[in-house]
Write a structure and sequence with these properties.
Length: about 400
């Protein structure tokens, strides 16, 4: 059974909305930390670090197995791994069990299906790489906010309260069932499928990539790869620093503001990050790499400066504006990665090339640690914000240095 490509796009958004659940760890961890009062913050935080590393491994595995296993099998395998991961984590009595369940299984499953969905939809939308990446990644980025809110509503926390175990099992079953159904209807297009929908993929791809079709080994030998890779680390690390310290920044300015309101304001980063992914993905298609990346760099630096003004003047309204603007501009990172890899190095080796580029997460994920360390050293969130501004400026240098080399 074949559908219009818009149907596959909707299915892809649903899959990534669920796969992005792993990014809600800061919310999911709260009841666990309250239950295991003797576990340190570092022990809990290591779960997410392991999850991100496993995500990269899963993404790479997805690239290596692309074309060797059917995309349906990829999605079904991911559903089974999510099920196993959440059920294992729900039985945790020690951090090790949590690391294996949530960190390894769920992280790997998320990266595995992430690559499959983006690779498949890249083939369906060879004429609109940036836009489809933005739409898909909007679902992935907003997952932590939407699912996190549901989790908070149904999962009471406190010492000795283990409602999180039931919620984790529920997530496992939900992911298994929905991915099983979505996988059944998800497929990569053949040349005939594209022609039937009036899509001249060959011409569009050649025009977008300048005729290049190179593999991962050739890609990493090009200066353009390393300059763009460094750009992703700068923007990604700064974004992670903001996310990790957002609650503290908001609390410092809004000391009288209720905790629920603080959580909602912090959640705006995820909401506008999702919207930014669509905007910047479409901008990449229409204006190209340089304009898109420069806009991200400048907007992120200025948005960070807005937070400096908010912290200096103790103005909570500016904190809200700053979070909205930072989240929106940070949203330009992921669709730019997907569109850049396809446009610069071609679609033939996209799955593996894309997974190699996503290894930036292994380094960028330490941005949150840097943000916390800067606060520990200075006792002020200003240092974290200056780090974010500096990252935006350095990123602009990388943007202007990239050539088709």
């Amino acid at each position: 059974m074949k559908f219009n490509r818009q149907v596959y796009a909707v299915i892809g958004v649903v899959i990534l909305l669920l796969a992005g659940l792993v990014y809600a760890w800061s919310v999911l961890a709260l009841p666990i930390g309250a239950y295991f009062v003797d576990w340190s913050k570092a022990q809990l935080s290591l779960t997410f670090t392991i999850c991100m590393m496993s995500f990269c491994v899963g993404c790479m595995t997805g690239g290596l197995t692309d074309g060797k296993i059917n995309v349906k099998q990829n999605i079904w395998t991911s559903g089974i791994l999510f099920f196993a991961g959440f059920f294992t984590a729900s039985c945790a009595q020690t951090p090790i069990t949590l690391y294996l369940g949530y960190g390894v299984c769920c992280g790997f499953a998320s990266g595995f299906v992430y690559n499959a969905v983006l690779s498949t939809m890249s083939a369906w939308y060879s004429d609109k790489q940036g836009l489809i990446s933005g739409v898909l990644l909007m679902g992935f980025g907003m997952s932590s906010f939407l699912v996190g809110k549901v989790y908070q509503a149904v999962t009471p926390s406190g010492e000795g309260v283990d409602a999180w175990r039931k919620s984790f099992r529920g997530f496992g079953i939900l992911l298994l069932v929905i991915l099983a159904v979505c996988g059944y209807f998800f497929t990569k297009p053949t040349k005939e499928d594209l022609e039937a929908q009036g899509i001249d993929a060959g011409v569009k791809k050649k025009k977008a990539s300048g005729g290049l079709e190179i593999n991962a080994r050739q890609m990493i030998a090009r200066p353009s790869f390393w300059l763009f890779f460094l750009w992703t680390i700068c923007i990604g690390g700064a974004g992670m620093a903001l996310i990790s310290q957002a609650s503290g920044i908001a609390r410092e300015v809004g000391s009288e503001v209720e905790a629920g309101m603080i959580a909602t304001v912090v959640g705006l980063i995820s909401v506008f990050n999702g919207l930014g992914r669509v905007f910047f993905g479409n901008l990449f298609d229409k204006k190209g790499r340089t304009v898109t990346m420069m806009t991200v760099d400048i907007a992120f630096a200025l948005s960070s400066a807005l937070l400096v003004a908010a912290l200096t003047g103790k103005m909570f309204a500016l904190i809200i504006a700053g979070f909205v603007c930072c989240g929106f501009s940070y949203g330009g990172l992921n669709p730019s990665i997907s569109a850049f890899v396809n446009a610069s190095y071609g679609g033939k080796n996209y799955p593996i090339n894309f997974s190699v580029m996503n290894l930036n997460l292994l380094i960028a994920s330490f941005g949150g640690t840097i943000g916390g360390l800067l606060f520990d050293i200075s006792g002020s969130y200003m240092t974290t914000l200056f780090y974010m501004i500096g990252s935006g400026v350095v990123s602009l240098i990388f943007t202007l240095s990239i050539r088709k080399l």
